[in-house]
Design brief:
By secondary structure, the protein is α+β, with helices and mostly antiparallel strands. Helices cover 50% and strands 15% of the residues. The two termini are 27 Å apart.
Length: 171
């Protein structure tokens, strides 16, 4: 079994749902994925012990935190490329953008024709992330924090880790 980026994308949606039960169809619609892909991801997350079955599916916070903090940047390495239009991410998106307001550099963005920011292309965790982010503010913030861990500098990464730890400890 190999985890794919879509599996972590689904796990982050479960975090954003605050462990409230939700059908795979509704999760899929919100993420821009089919319900069969969501089902497959949940099965892999169960096997990887990142999710447990309990009146729906709930993240195992300690295990997901361990993976996000110590593994994700080595497994899902972002491609950082040319300037484009897109959706701000990493330290240039909420919640970290409040901490890095004085930056004069071009922001990292997920390439997206519906995006409203011009910046440097930063590959999202999953290609459907811009759609999922538009549908769910909490998911957007989680994805941006994960991107700061994946591709940020030490200070950005440390602040993102603190935020992820806080959000997962309250689950």
């Amino acid at each position: 079994m190999e985890l794919k980026s879509q599996d972590i994308y689904v796990a982050l949606k479960l975090v954003a749902l605050r462990n409230e039960p939700c059908s795979m169809q509704r999760i899929g619609e919100s993420l821009g994925l089919s319900s069969s892909i969501v089902h497959g991801s949940i099965q892999k997350l169960l096997k990887a012990r990142l999710v447990r079955k309990d009146k729906g599916h709930k993240v195992i916070s300690a295990n997901l935190r361990e993976f996000l903090v110590h593994g994700i940047r080595f497994v899902f390495i972002p491609d950082i490329a040319e300037p484009c239009r897109g959706v701000a991410t990493a330290s240039f998106a909420p919640p970290l953008n409040k901490e890095f307001v004085d930056s004069n550099e071009l922001p990292y963005v997920w390439p997206d024709p519906e995006g409203d920011v011009r910046g440097i292309s930063f590959s999202p965790l999953h290609k459907a992330a811009p759609k999922g982010a538009r549908n769910d503010k909490e998911l957007y913030e989680l994805l941006a924090l994960v991107d700061a861990i994946r591709g940020g500098r030490a200070r950005e990464r440390n602040m993102a880790i603190d935020q992820v730890n806080h959000r997962l400890s309250s689950k």
